[in-house]
Amino acid sequence: MQKLQGIAVSPGVAIGEALVMDNEGFRIPRRFVTRDTVEDELERLEGAIAAASREIERNCEAVSQELGEQYGAIFKAHLQMLQDSRLRSELEEMIRQRHYSPEYAVSRTLRRYAQVFGRLESSYLAERANDIFDIEKRLLRHLLGRRREGISHLSSAVLVLAHNLTPSETANLDRRFVRGFVTEIGGPGGHTAIVAEALEIPAVVGTGPFLTEVSGGDQVIIDGDKGLVILQPDEETVARYRHEAEEIRSMAVRLESLRDLPAETADGVRLQLLGNIEFPYEVDHCIDRGADGVGLYRTEFLYLGSETEPTEEVHYQAYSQVVRAMGDKPVTIRTFDLGADKVPHLPEPEDERNPFLGLRSIRLALRNLPLFRTQLRAALRASALGNVRIMFPLVSTLLELRQAKMVLADVMEDLEEHGIAFRRDLHIGMMVEVPAAVMMIEHFVEEVDFVSIGTNDLIQYTLAVDRSNRDVVGLYNPADPSILKLITMTIEAANRKPIPVNLCGQMSGSPMYTMLLLGMGLRRFSVTPSAIPEIKNVCRHVTIEQCQAVAARVRSLENARDINSYLKEELKRRVPVLGQ
Ligand code: PEP
Ligand code: MG
Fold first, then answer.
1. What is the band of 124 on the pLDDT scale with cuts at 50, 70, 90?
2. Which CATH superfamily is domain 35-147 in?
3. Is 504 tagged catalytic?
4. CA 505 – ligand 1 centroid, Å
5. 315: annotated active-site residue
């Protein structure tokens, strides 16, 4: 049994069989071969080494001819490594003595070599680790041949263990079979984490390297609440977690009883609890949890889930499914927030060194007007079916907002000219997720019908902490006083105008912050649908006066650690765990 600590990004417990993905997203197959097949397996390994060597020789020749001998030498070095007698005898020993499959032996041995190189101080030598990964991949390609399988053909329940999953890979996971996932890299606010919540499966990211320790079919436990991953658990641990999973299920049933109760505080102040969705099917999750509407529809997942650019009709179908299902409740369609870690199959911008600071989101939309207009047409058409709002992401200047509104007005005129129905008076809003937008909030509230605070990005841009990087996870903190000040400024400016203000970052789905946010004047929370009952439970146990006292106390504290521990205590004191 081995325990790994990662970052908890989607709650719950999953116990099941591992499906291990290599760096290229292909499965690394099971570990063992039977005694009587050892000779055949050794032969298969020899065949793969021979084929890989021929391939490298061909590359060496071609590169030497085109670019000169010195470049061909790179491949000569690969060839030497591949034919190194120590490597060969290690691989043979693993297959003969330990009965590892050749794929597993190759993967395990070469990754160990790569780790040794990676730890060397000389950066030149450390980079040789990549050469070793290259050799590993080449050998695996030859060993697996046509049997290389991706993640798309699943037929039984699995827990996916991968180095990384991009948001689009996560978006394409088969919900019928994937019961949880773990990635070696990734941080708390990455979109991979957000999709895990949409799938409502436990997930842990940022564990650090462990894939060489596990193979397909091993039993694994994912504890999405504590961020723990347990490889090959003993019986006692499995029994304990089965019990815990049972508890979680019965807690969910108890929370269901809140579904039809109003979202209001103990002193009767009515709130709006809205759902964040990434896929149209999640509208059912919103309805099941009694959401007051959709506060954030991350439409970029339409682009991420498909090989081709979605047509206007594809957009329209997706939006109308959501709008129809919500009846007269609001549906906030956020225009596509692509770029940074959400990269679709568009041509990649050249040399994006800082993709989170680069051509993402509304900037990308304003530079790709046909793409933007297609989406706006579809969203406007869907507005004829219900209560649609349109929201622009990552707005950082007034000019940007005005430009986006101008494009929208132009598309409206176009629809009108063609006699196509839409709601002319639909509400137009913006995300507040860049510190510059908060600094200019007094101006912004004059030009929009509502604002929604995106703390996921606001934290990253204020504290200069990459939300998807596990190495700086300790610095990524919603309770940092600077973040709380920016949130307060936004809420107060919106309430003064007054226009509705919502908070749709992950922070609003964490019960620990509910009292504080209520005390700061927030009345609209948009959260992952599964979090709605828990947030409602907190709201129904507290009065606004108590929350204002919490906010006042927090204002007197000067660091996130003290604020977090105070908020945890306060939550425990005021809100009984349901059913206890
Ligand atoms: C945010 O930044 O808080 C937000 C809700 O948007 P996203 O997570 O999609 O960037
Ligand atoms: Mg954002």
1. confident
2. PtsI, HPr-binding domain (1.10.274.10)
3. yes
4. 5
5. no
